[in-house]
Write a structure and sequence with these properties.
globular, mainly alpha, single chain
Length: 265
């Protein structure tokens, strides 16, 4: 890892972050600010959404689940797109940090998608009268959850980390076709799930008293997602550096008796 050099075909911007030491130095200064911003923005969004925002005239207090569910759904899809980009960087440019970041991202993405499914079930029970229905939106999100889990398991299933990363990258790129299915399933098929309310081209389909705290929660959860991913990647880089130092020390220890015998001879 330490001696890996970026492929010369990669761009200059990729070169800048390819060195693990430079990555650690940059993120050491970024991570506290990013984590602090995530806490502040998310704190404002949660307080605003769960306590200060008005109850919905139709859904009542149940609508507050949306302030967690919707950000989790966006992060599940957006995070998977990030995983696909990392996979392209790994397969084409052999970026030395792309594999590590992807490896650490998939458990986080699986957790986010699980929260999306859980909060969706909690929201669906009072609204639809059931915890689960096999409609297009819910089923495609469940498939997305299994893709996250599959990537997390596949990259750890091989003794050779490079081979595992390669197989995981291929799975991520194949699975990316599910993301537009998740996004547009409510438009393509007749489902119980409500259509898009925020990303409509004409105007958002919700009152600003609910829209604004939702956007704050989404920004806060997004910053937290980025901070956790960066922290996990930093930990993976440092763990690999420590392992490399231990292996080098073990090789030196194994070589020392042989050198002493040659000196004695």
């Amino acid at each position: 890892m330490e001696n890996a050099a970026p492929n010369p075909r990669s761009s200059g911007s990729l070169h800048r972050f390819a060195n693990p030491g430079r990555f650690l130095r940059l993120t050491e200064s970024w991570l506290p600010w990013l984590s602090g911003a995530a806490l502040v923005v998310l704190g404002i969004g949660i307080v605003w959404g769960l306590w200060l925002a008005p109850r919905d005239w139709q859904q009542g207090e149940t609508v507050r689940i949306m302030f967690v569910h919707v950000p989790m759904a966006w992060l599940a899809m957006g995070g998977y797109m990030g995983l696909a980009i990392l996979s392209i960087m790994s397969l084409i440019w052999r970026h030395p940090l792309a594999d590590l970041t992807a490896r650490e991202l998939s458990p986080i993405g699986a957790a986010v998608t699980a929260l999306c499914l859980l909060t969706g079930s909690l929201w669906g029970k009072p609204m639809w009268g059931t915890w689960w229905v096999w409609d297009a939106r819910l089923t495609s999100v469940l498939v997305l959850f299994f893709l996250w889990l599959g990537h997390a398991a596949l990259v750890r299933a091989f003794d050779d980390p490079e081979r595992g990363a390669r197989m995981g990258a291929i799975l991520a790129l194949v699975g990316v076709v599910n993301v537009p299915i998740v996004k547009f399933s409510v438009d393509w098929w007749n489902t119980l799930h409500q259509p898009a309310s925020v990303t409509r081209l004409d105007a958002p389909g919700m009152h600003v008293d609910i829209l604004y705290p939702l956007l704050w929660c989404t920004l806060g959860f997004t910053l937290a997602f980025m901070a956790v991913t960066l922290a996990a990647t930093r930990a993976a880089v440092m763990e690999r550096r420590v392992r490399a130092l231990q292996m080098a020390a073990a090789r030196r220890a194994d070589a020392s008796p042989g050198q002493m015998r040659s000196v004695e001879a």
